[in-house]
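Narrative of accomplishments. A recurring question from our advisory board has been how the design workflow behaves on a single, concrete structure rather than in aggregate. To address it, we present the structure tokens for one chain from the evaluation set, followed by the sequence designed for it. No filtering or post-editing was applied between the two.
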């Protein structure tokens, strides 16, 4: 059986965040200097207090949302800042972005990460270079199974109120019944686009597979175990253009944790089909191993800390 799915990638032509004057590309020499201030002696990790609390939001802003851009797809880096956008992502460590593998397939030097876009055009947009991309070894670009990747940045960000990290839930955590997805939308009368949150229900694996068996995917459709589903309420869902953005769910102390990464859907928002996400808890061990093996602190994004 041939399964047709639509991988969600950012539709760059509709983005017009005009913040070029605030563009702050890293200087070329920084790209070769690797400094990780959070890195202590390896054995000290357990005692290092994270410099920022993950998953905190102020004023409804989501300081960990990023846009991934492929420089080879933007003819002009100086004019439209979002030209060449290939997906969204989440900052989970001052120098690591969690994203969908389908938006991390270009060689690292071609990729850039934009921060400061979540709050709309008024934010301070910054660009960061990527030095290494790590795609999940079982990622299958044909059917998007295991569609998860990490981007390692050339320098760690200085975290602040407007630049923060998301929390990841423990591997055995279950999401709440309703969570929050993100979509690009018009945020103001000025016509600028920004990120809007959408309240969505979480479906269990069986329910989701049933829904998709009633679509053109057919009654033998198998929803891969690397996926989870949320959404499907009419007029309230994420759509093409939101690929790579997180699904976050409420956690303790007013924090939120990322349970999903938007991957695909069919006829989004209109026909009751939920959106399909990477099930992030399933990959928590993989994420920790990749980050830990590069000598970086894996407690920064840990909700259980
Ligand atoms: C690229 O930028 C230059 C100068 O900023 C401009 O003259 C040119 O028209 C731009 N090209 C495209 C394809 O946007
Ligand atoms: C995500 O994967 C874990 C581990 O396989 C599983 O226990 C959990 O039910 C999945 N979550 C959802 C929402 O499907």
């Amino acid at each position: 059986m041939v399964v047709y799915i639509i991988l969600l990638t950012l539709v760059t032509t509709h983005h017009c965040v005009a913040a070029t004057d605030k563009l702050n590309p890293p200087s070329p020499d920084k790209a070769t200097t690797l400094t990780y201030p959070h890195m202590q002696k390896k054995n000290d990790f357990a005692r290092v207090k994270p410099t920022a609390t993950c998953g905190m939001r102020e004023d409804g802003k989501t300081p960990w949302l990023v846009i991934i851009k492929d420089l080879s797809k933007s003819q002009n880096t100086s004019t439209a800042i979002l030209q060449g956008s290939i997906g969204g992502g989440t900052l989970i460590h001052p120098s690591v972005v969690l994203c969908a593998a389908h938006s991390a397939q270009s060689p690292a030097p071609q990729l850039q990460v934009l921060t400061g876009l979540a709050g709309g055009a008024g934010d301070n947009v910054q660009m960061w270079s990527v030095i290494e991309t790590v795609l999940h070894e079982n990622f299958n670009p044909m059917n998007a199974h295991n569609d998860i990747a990490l981007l390692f940045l050339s320098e760690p960000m200085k975290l602040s109120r407007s630049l923060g990290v998301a929390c990841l839930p423990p591997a055995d955590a279950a999401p709440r019944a309703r969570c929050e997805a993100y979509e690009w939308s018009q945020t103001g009368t000025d016509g600028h686009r920004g990120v809007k949150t959408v309240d969505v229900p979480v479906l269990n694996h069986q329910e989701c597979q049933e829904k998709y068996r009633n679509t053109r995917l057919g009654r033998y459709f198998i929803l891969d175990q690397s996926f989870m589903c949320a959404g499907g309420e009419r007029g309230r869902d994420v759509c093409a253009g939101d690929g790579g953005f997180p699904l976050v769910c409420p956690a303790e102390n007013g924090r939120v944790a990322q349970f999903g990464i938007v991957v695909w859907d069919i006829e989004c928002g209109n026909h009751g089909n939920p959106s399909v996400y990477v099930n992030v808890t399933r990959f928590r061990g993989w994420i920790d191993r990749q980050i830990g093996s590069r000598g970086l602190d894996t407690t920064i994004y840990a909700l259980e800390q």
